[in-house]
Specification:
It contains 4 helices and 6 strands. The protein has one domain (about 5-125). About 20% of the residues lie in helices and about 30% in strands. Bound molecules: zinc ion. Zinc ion binds next to α3.
Length: about 150
């Protein structure tokens, strides 16, 4: 788990972005509209362009940008808490590992994907992630000493 875009390699790969909404957000995915409740969300994406994972995560963490992707609605309205990255990984495989988590908005982030119903999951408090991701939530509930 990384907490700064500077920790990410400038190499292609996939990532799970950990987001938090402090207030309800009306979000859209194509023609589908839903109200996302306050709480934590996980978004699976991939970065294959110049600058790789580092450039993509830097953009997600940027507050001053024009909304382009579905996920920009959440990064602009909420907080980016961190990201789990897999160099050379596949976003749909990461998403499949989150299969037990609810889909708040069908089609969100997956309009160019034929495998997944959405690339965004709601992450209810107390629900475990795959074991190697678990340290993420623990790291925030017990912040590391400054
Ligand atoms: Zn997919």
């Amino acid at each position: 788990m990384i907490f700064s875009d500077l920790d990410a390699p400038a190499a292609p790969g996939a990532y799970v972005l950990w987001l938090r909404l402090g207030a309800p957000l009306t979000a859209t995915a194509g023609k589908v509209v839903a109200t996302l409740e306050p709480g934590d969300y996980l978004y699976c994406g991939s970065a294959r362009g110049p600058g790789g994972l580092r450039a993509r995560l830097a953009r997600h963490m940027l507050k001053d940008k024009r909304a382009h992707w579905h996920v920009d609605q959440l990064t602009l309205a909420g907080q980016v808490l961190g990201a789990f990255i897999v160099q050379g990984g596949d976003e749909c495989a990461l998403n499949a590992a989150l299969d037990a988590l609810p889909i708040p908005l069908p089609g969100f982030g997956s309009s160019d994907c034929r495998r997944c119903a959405a690339h965004l999951r709601f992450w209810p408090k107390g629900v475990a992630l795959p074991s190697d991701w678990e340290n993420a939530r623990k790291a925030v509930e017990t912040p590391p000493p400054a």
